[in-house]
Amino acid sequence: SEAIPLLLSNRDVAYEEQAKFSFVYYPFSMKLIWAPLVDSCFFARFGRRKSWLVPAQFVIGVTMLIASQYVDKLLGKEATETESLVPPDVTSLTILFFFLNLMAATQDVAVDGWALTMLKPGNVGYASTCNTVGQTTGWVLGYIIYTNMESAGLITLSQFLIAWGVIFLATTSLIAIFKADKPEQDETYLGLVDTYKIIWKIIRHPLIPVVILFLMTYKFGFASSESLTNLKLLEKGVPKSKVALLSIPMIPVKIIFTILLSAFTVGPRPMTVWLVSFPLRLFFCLVLPLLVYLASILISDDGQFPNYYYVILTTVFALHLSTDYAMQLAIMAFFARISDPAVGGTYMTFLNTLNNLGTMWPRSFALWFVAIITTKVCETGGSIHSTPSYNYTILNDAIEDNCCAGTSEVEACEAGGGSCTTITEGYYILSGVCCLVGYMWLVWGWRAIAQLQQIDPWQWRVVKKIESQHHNEEFDGEKNKIQIFVLLLKLIHGKQSCYLRTITGDILHFEIVPLNQNLF
After folding, report:
1. pTM
2. Contact (CB, 8 A) for 344 and 112
3. Contact (Cβ atoms closer than 8 angstroms) between residue 258 and residue 317
């Protein structure tokens, strides 16, 4: 689904439609609704996590095979001498990929919980490393490799879905047959109602309101630059394949970078890496619009760009993505550290849901709002009258009421001998304002995060079973110590004069010392 916006942009789809398609990512921000089902309802014989992971992945594979028969039609067709324009069916594409992501989000809940019990307690911090490396591999295959192969005419989206549908079915079958999912000795199981009660306990936890505010707001500063830059580069004439290739040099860098940073995120202060990366990421978000503006200057008459521009573009993208990866790794390690293993799937899902929702709403807002503050006109031989709101353009020529918003209106403008021209570029304005808000947010965020990561993991727990057992054992131990102490006093009293001395400082360790023995 990451490559679809580029395909839609090549078909001149309006930013309002792009904002609609951005809702396909919202299942990852909604999975908390059904996470308790995944955590508490399962077939014990088959496995607590496999009961959901295997069916979800099978559904994804089957859906891909079915969708492959229709997806090329949904993407639309460009006008030719013999065929008229068929605009993309963005609504149907949104429904299709929303469902695929819905299944992927369900699988994600199971994987999050499985990671907490599959890894040893000392290696839980490496869950974020596995997560990041796995996401990187999928992103490379599904975005970079597919986009370049599609641009070269080597594969269509339909063929790509068929290939990965088969792969999903094959790998899921292997997991179902060969991967054991045995319960841990101390693993806690909660019923469905109890799990929803746990969510309510998590929400009511005194530390969570600050976490919610933090996760829902920290990505606003990056929203405009990160969600719009690739689309704007395409708009300025940079080929789609080149845009995807910008990330290729970062593939080995990201994997190595992730492994190296694991040494800093596994410890008790994983968010230190996050705090260092945040202002740097904001700085590169200010640089990205400059690169878009530079593209409009450097493009030649034949639509080519000098090689040094691609070098600059690749370098800035690499540095920007490095800060993004560092923040992802740090925050995933922080989630793994503070999550309660007794309800690992639900707790991790709750935190990841907030993090994803904090990513998506600024992105949707940026795609929607940039269209409002951008003014475009259809330039023809006649005069042009443009209004600043909603890119509305009135032509007194053959083309009237054409605001150059969407595939059909762009095609109509070009068919009338005109061309769409941007008068006011809202992307630059919105990117600058977002980054300014981000730096202002950091004034509060730095102190809040520094304090949150100093809190002991036990203080984040919501299930008190293990803690209560530990407390009862301590209470019983203290009771026994007091009884021994009383017996010793009875023994001493009336027997002989002596001193009572502790050996290790623990009340259990006593020694009866005669008066004539040197205590030192």
Report:
1. 0.70
2. yes
3. no
